[in-house]
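Support request, please re-run this one:
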Amino acid sequence: MKHRLLMTAAAAALLFTTACSDQQVITPHEEQVNITLSWWGNDQRNEYTIAAVKLFEKLHPEIKVKCNYSEWSGYQARSDVQMVSGTEADVMQINYAWIEQYSPDGKGFYDIQQLSDHVDLSNFTEDELSYGMQEGSLNAVPIALNTQSVYINKTIYDRYGLDVPQTWEDFFDAAKVMYGEVYPVAMTSKSSWFFITAYAEQVCGKQFMTMNGELNFEAEDIQVMLEFYRRLIEEKVMPQVEYFERLAPEDGIYAGIVAWLSDGSSYCDRAVRNGYEYIVTDYPADAASKVGDGWYAKPATMYAISKNTDHPEESAMLLDFLLNSTEMADLQRIEKGIPLSDAAQTYLAESDLLKGMQYEAFEKMNEYSEDLAVISPYFENEELIAAFRDASNAVLYDKADSTEKAEELRNTFAEILAEARG
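Re-run finished. Output below.
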């Protein structure tokens, strides 16, 4: 992944003139083509995506798009069935991990490279497209990139006379000053998995797992993770992940949040409206590690085309519209993260729509883009995270020795990953 500069105004004007002229051409068709589009999301996402589809149909009256959408858990469950039965949508929003899950040989989705006459892939760098490459086939195109970001309530840190934390120990020093009145940082179970793994990778000098999902940590490395979580809780740096409260940042109960880049606004905006100043700080590191070591980036979400589609060209036209059109950029803005498409990103920049906590986190990610590792599709396996949470609580409440638990947990991790790899 590399830092991508915004295009010049002249280049952007030329791009959009070309893009718009392409979109406005309505090709006569003798018969209607029906395709399907599926996605997950909240009401806001549903509304703007439906509006975008209507604009697409207006530009291409020969194509009719049927929309299928739901919230995440329902979407995932339905997609599991559809992918097995070959009844998935022609164009679909997919999770990054699904490429490995449904297309280990690269043949589970349509190769979008074969449709480059209809999808302008020049809006994306090779590094960005590599997230969707599988065995030489472009299975999906990332909409935006995501990473865990550290959001700090500077107002609270200033109140206690503290600098914004830069190292792991800074959080513990802050907890001593805050006296348990406020937590220096808080996070969900999944975010804590990234936070703690980043610390352990820096301390142990190795990655938790390989890209293909093979465990790279030994028992002593996992013990570092268990002991670090116990210290975080016992020294009141953060609440237990089970007690994390999503709305607490706006009440000033937490002085910091670790969360996805794409969630920055949802966590911080209400707090800002309550008079707090939030900033995105550097990824924690100690003197022996570079800033960014142990932290990962991944596609926030992706679009793919079904290998079973009867209408690949029309599906590709819709895909291009969703990724690159100014119409979609204007409707979607940064709801799915900062778009990677040069065309979409330039339009948002020229329209003064690239701002807020998400954009600040995006700029921080770009600042350290050379140091952030590409995440393995297996890293976010929910069984791994649940197993670590259970083991951490056993150690926290003195129900298990960390040495013995680490050995047991390593075996559990290895079994989960072996099963996931098939």
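The first strand starts at residue 33 and ends at 40. The chain is about 45% helix and 15% strand.
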